[in-house]
Amino acid sequence: MLLTRNLTNFLKTINGVRNASHFTYVSSTADPSLGKTTKMNLFQSINDAMDITLAKDDTALIFGEDVGFGGVFRCTVGLRDKYGSDRVFNTPLCEQGIAGFGIGAAVAGATAIAEIQFGDYIFPAFDQIVNEAAKYRYRSGNLFNCGSLTFRATWGAVGHGALYHSQSPEAYFSHTPGLKVVIPRGPIQAKGLLRGCVEDPNPCIFFEPKILYRSAVDEVPIEDYTLPLGKAEIVKEGKDVTMVAWGTQLHVIREVADMVEKDFNVSCEVIDLQSILPWDVETVANSVSKTGRLLISHEAPITSGFGSEIAATIQKECFLNLEAPITRVCGWDTPFPHVYEPFYLPSKWRCYDAIKKMINY
Prior knowledge:
361 residues; alpha/beta; Rossmann fold; 2 domains; seven-stranded mixed beta sheet; five-stranded mixed beta sheet; 14 helices; oxidoreductase
């Protein structure tokens, strides 16, 4: 009886933690030079970026599972009614077919935006993206390409997604020359980076943190704008520790930076990498040369996660400046769990403890 009661209380506790957000969203402020703004959440800013693309480019197409209906996350809502079913349309539930169609459309001269409903199911399209799209320009000696191609895919933890709706697959694609891989942290970045992907002459993968679709709200510029791919953003300046993350995890380390400043008077420089491929080595290296310490945090499993590449590069670039070993706080090397999601995620407390160890090294 006692065992049953204890187990029940444990499960209630786990359920309560699981349904609580593991981060606090930190709003961004747009560059005043971009003009007037309006309040948008993440899916609205993505919708706005695609609306602008369809309006400016008569060759632009948007397609994927349920896209014509507005998408399961509402990112394409209203676009089929506005631009017609020949430009915004549904596809069969077949990711390799969606990717292959996108490549063919781009080769034929269209600006193709292909939606992969969940990033976890981008793997059936892996061959098309890695062996076809990424290599198309190179294998022809730049005689032809499929550069006007953007793959949109949801990404990351959502609080209840478990094994097949929570993964962060960016590292798989970071090993592929010919692609660009981008992950925004909020609505302002999402609109500018998605427009940047569409305008880029290379095939791009645009991962969208699905937990932010409605929870992330910014004042987003109304007019069209692009943000540069391959450029990180220093979100908070500091002098003692450099912290690097992307997507949802950026908001976790942003909170940790405030916590350690209050508790230990430690000044953290927070960097949003934004682009995984190519990534901004210069910005990160300059920061670590100043601080002497680097913490990298991402939701994906730690082994062979993209944090490994950052750590290896910065160890080489900043070896003589390092005051402590480079630290990675990441997901564990297990499939993404359901009930145990709070313990899997690289929480603010894991990052907090890592900073304590670094400054006392």
